[in-house]
Amino acid sequence: MNTWGWFITIFIGMWLLQFLLTKLQLKNYQTTIQRLSKRPSGYLGVGIQKQKVGTGAIAILITNETGIIEECETMEGVTVFTRFKPFTAHNGITLHQLKAKLEDQPMDTAFKMAIEKIEGQMNKKTAV
Fold it and tell me: Among 30, 33, 19, 31, which residue's Cα sits nearest to residue 80?
């Protein structure tokens, strides 16, 4: 096989491996969301910070009915090997208190989006 043939074979192999690993990461994301959404009450918010270059971040917040954070998981990384990890630093505080702490880091931006989603759900419920 000539040089170009090997190059194309290696490229296709790497592309297929990336496809498989991306599919596994998506399955991890879906499993985590399903597991966390099985709570009988409260709110779930997901925030995503994508960057063209650098580290991306995903934050999942679970609050009770009054807006106190009960559980949090984060995923931050560049590769498809990254998985969700429990993040307990914000457990027990309100969404308002968390908002006051946040800065402009990628993970903080993901937390801001998750907070906005939860506040939207809370406002919908009070409007009904």
Answer: 19
Task: Give the number of residues written for the chain.
Answer: 128
What is the DSSP secondary structure assignment for residue 62, as one 8-state letter? Answer: E
Average pLDDT over residues 108-122: 93
Query: In degrees, to the nearest 5, what angle opens at C-alpha 53 toward C-alphas 85 and 117?
Result: 50
* Alpha-carbon span 73 to 52, nearest angstrom: 23
β-pair partners for 45:
61
Of 82, 74, 77, 76, nearest to 45 by C-alpha is 74
The one-letter code for the residue type at 27 is K
Tell me the domains of the chain and their CATH numbers. Answer: 3-127 (3.90.1010)
* Residue 71: per-residue pLDDT: 93
Nearest to 89 by CA among 105, 106, 102, 104: 102
pLDDT confidence of residue 80? 75
Residue 13 has pLDDT above 70, yes or no: yes
Asked if 24 contacts 84 with a C-beta cutoff of 8 angstroms, the reply is: no
pTM of the model: 0.81
